[in-house]
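Sorry to interrupt, but I need a hand with the structure work. Leave the record below and I will have a look:
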Amino acid sequence: MLKVLTKPFMYPTPVIETKGPSRKKAEKAKNWTATVKKLWDYLSVKKGGIITVLFLVILSTGLSLLGPVLIGRTVDHYIVTKETEGLFALLIGILIVYVLYSAAVFLQGYIMIGIAQNTVSRLRTDLFTHLHRLPISFFDKRQSGELMSRVTNDIENVSTTLNSSVIQVFSSILMLVGTISVMLWLSPLLTVISLIIVPLMFMGMKWITNRTGVLFKSQQRNLGELNGFIEETISGQRIVKTFSQEQKVIDEFIEKNGRLRQSGFWAQTFSGFIPKLMNVLNNVSFTIIAAVGGIFALKGMITIGVIIVFAEYSRQFTRPLNDLANQFNTLLSAVAGAERVFEILAEDPESTDETEAIELEKVKGKVEFREVSFSYEKEGNTVRNISFLAEAGQMVALVGPTGAGKSTIINLLSRFYDPDNGMILIDGHNTALVKRKSLRSHMGFVLQDSFLFEGPILENIRYGRLDAADDEVIAAAKAANAHSFIMKMPEEYNTHLKQDGSGISQGQKQLLSIARAILANPTILILDEATSSIDTITELTIQEALGRLMAGRTSFVIAHRLNTIRNADKILVLNNGEIAEQGSHESLLKQKGYYYELQNNKS
């Protein structure tokens, strides 16, 4: 330790403290502690790489601390004394120290980027996989754009932070501990004087970060809402233009974009105060060291080399504080994004199959509802006491006003939802005790809004059965009356469709959906308004294809056009969530009840 000097200061080998403070500093926000822990659980899979990175961080920190000491030694032993013997060797040593420092920094960054990308890839895969395990009810209540924002923007924030901020935080903590240790070893008094500004730094950082945390979380939430609105508006562009609501959606966009701008502005503004505050206090610290160090040097208490080392260490002391402050803002944004990701991962997946759940090997198609009741919101019933029997191969039509419960019955049959009361049976088996995948493998769906994936027509049809040969796909297309228009396409079955089949007509998309269902060869077929948005001529083509598809299969048909269900074996007339009437077309007309009124109103 340095006392009053009568000759140039002799530098012993510095002892560098490598233990950093607790990580709890990064977990300051109580509601984010669990999020940080979960992120660490993902990171800790690559423990070997992390240990290597930590070793390199310690090495680079030690070399960074050693450099100024050697420079101070050069000043005191060679510049002040004007000696040259050994100077060149010392300069080479300084060069080697900084070259090794640069190499260690490069390697730790290179390895950490690999760890970060692997971690984020696993996190993104887990999130995407979990999304496909969630029940339909989850998606009914969420905007797809908002969910997309969590898979992309929020995880990208995590990626950016893990790539650099984690190393920076650990390195800064080590640098702080090491710098203070060496400064105390050189001159405790000058160290205490130079640290006078530290309380001001922490007071300023605390005041700022208390505000930025809320703002960054608000920014991520507003970004998700804006993404959801954009996705919804672009998807519904035809409706927007049909009703000339361009200005309305533009005004809504401006309002949501304004909220994002406002939260982003204040988040960045408050976070921008930190580096400016640090720079000011850094200059104050440098001034104090220069002034007080000069006085001490004149009194012979320290050497000029010590002042130079302290001046460099004062920057090395405030620089990690500045880095921590800057990285803290990035961490706030990343943890806010990670929190939104883990919110989805914490959602309960679709109920697991019962332990005694069975596989349905062969299904004839007999369907029975026994006193089934269900509500989406658990307050009041959407459907009540639904009971009916559909024999294998029968066509059952569901009719009634909007909100009567037609789609709900289909959702219950396919186990997108489970009934609150009652029982649904297929071939005498309670569907609650049948594995969902097995149950749905015997069902085929042709919906009003047929969805097609981006890719070749061939693969869109093959989606019904992935192991189908090309000849089987073509045969299904012929049965669906789709073959003729496909052959007129530029590349026939290899024609690449755009997302959701844009570029072909609604009728053509519906024919491809029917071909997909035919290829799947289901026992139970569900048709949900399959021809409601089709012109009359195209409807005849589709009806012919549907006739082939329904042959020999139990079919449930939701239709508003009552003329399309005249040949149904059984018609269920729903009203206010209950079956008002059921029977054949002729028998229901003879009753002159609710169905009779619907028929007359439609005619």
Q: What stands out?
A: The chain has 19 helices and twelve strands. The first strand starts at residue 367 and ends at 374. The two ends are 104 Å apart (CA to CA).
